[in-house]
Amino acid sequence: MLKQPILGRKLVLLLCLLLVEQAYAQPDPPIDTVITTKHTGVINGSNITYNASIGMQPVWNEDGKVIATLNYTYYERTDSKDKASRPLIISFNGGPGSAALWMEIGYTGPRILTLDDEGYPVQPYGEMKDNPYSLVDIADILYVNPVNTGYSRIIDKKVDKNVFFGVNADIKYLAAWLNTFVTRMDRWQSPKYLIGESYGTTRVSGLALALQESQWMYLNGVILVSPTDLGLKREGPVEIALRLPYFAAAAWYHKALASDLQQKDLDSLLPEVEAFTLNELLPAVTKGGALPVEERKQMAAKMAHYSGLSEKTILQNSFDISTWFFWKELLRDRGLTIGRLDSRYLGIDEKDAGDSPDYNAELTSWLHSFTPAINHYIRSELNYKTDVKYNVFGSVYPWDSKDDHTGNNLQQAMAQNPYLQVMVQSGYFDGACDYFNAKYNLWQLDPAGKFQNRMTIKGYRTGHMVYMRKPDLKQATEDIRAFIQKTTVANGVPAKY
């Protein structure tokens, strides 16, 4: 019998691989659909009736062809008759590549994940309850899942993924998508707010200007929860020095500071550390090798005092302590690591040696509870049934991070729109997007000091997810309520300087 030709064997193998891939491939979601259910909940002490609409809305290219479809959830109070005066909050999560579940069932939505009062998951995982602090009583809320998050998917398999996966591409297609949604829901007259968490702050900062310039849609407010650097560069001495206040907060939480600092409340400790950082540490690090030996030792001793690390460790690293090393080093003598996104969380590594933790203790904990909750909630309460996988995290790589000017975009949007105000919410124990770098953002967004009365920053005794602890969830939502009240402009007030 003749042997099968090599080329023929390759074709057979390729065909088999394609058949296997098709067998395990996820189905495409519906392109344009919505399911609406009616609900009642006790929010802010009152019985609130609302509709929850979960659906898919297309993304079109310039030729009007559908290239993707985005999954969203929209909560609308049913007894509010005046859409023109009722605020609309548009909510994004981060990543890039993270779905909207964190904000939806962790923060502002009407149904919330059951956690203990400190924000740790409890058995059975995934239980939901009414959120007494939801914002649905004062505003309608849209949660958006960008491409490859939630059920959102690319429909045109031939489309260049660069249309979606990049700082500016992401902003461009989402701005157009929001125009369609606002038009469909008749919300053009409503006061509008963008809220983003983590990378979502990059997204909404860019959207603030893009919505104005390409969609002619103007906002009342932008809320940045645990903001990124927003494209505002901080390298060398600035990058090194700005980490210290976060180090101090995390060390204080774990009682790793000297007794004189440990006995202080965080509200009095952090301003002291911030002043040292700006007035002493930053100039010292700037001098580099020119810093005299005795001054170097004195500065290392002070930095060690505020960080919970040893003076020897500070000097060995020439003051440049990376966050990854800090998470490993702070409690090394106790055989523990601390979390990245929330440094209250503890981890256990295979080896105490090393320069970084084996895993993110906090994220592992959150995924235990948020993943079963969102999947069950969508099917059982929102009545949306699909075989498409809900991507808590979806692939959006390679992501084009070039030309990130989103911080400057936000400043320009504020300059063009006298109504627009900004609020930042940061957790003191967030090691990924720390609170002091968030302050630095606001300083550099407004170097001339012209917009300081239109910018607010709020700090909480929690981590990246500022809403995980019950006291902070309550306070953070109260802060948003106050922000909306402050930025809802009375009828007849002109938009002018």
UniProtKB/TrEMBL annotation:
It comes from Olivibacter ginsenosidimutans. The keyword Lipid biosynthesis does not apply. Residues 1-25 form the signal peptide. It comes from the Bacteria. Gene3D superfamilies: alpha/beta hydrolase. This is Carboxypeptidase. One of its GO terms (molecular function) is carboxypeptidase activity. Keywords: Carboxypeptidase, Hydrolase, Protease, Signal. The keyword Hydrolase applies.
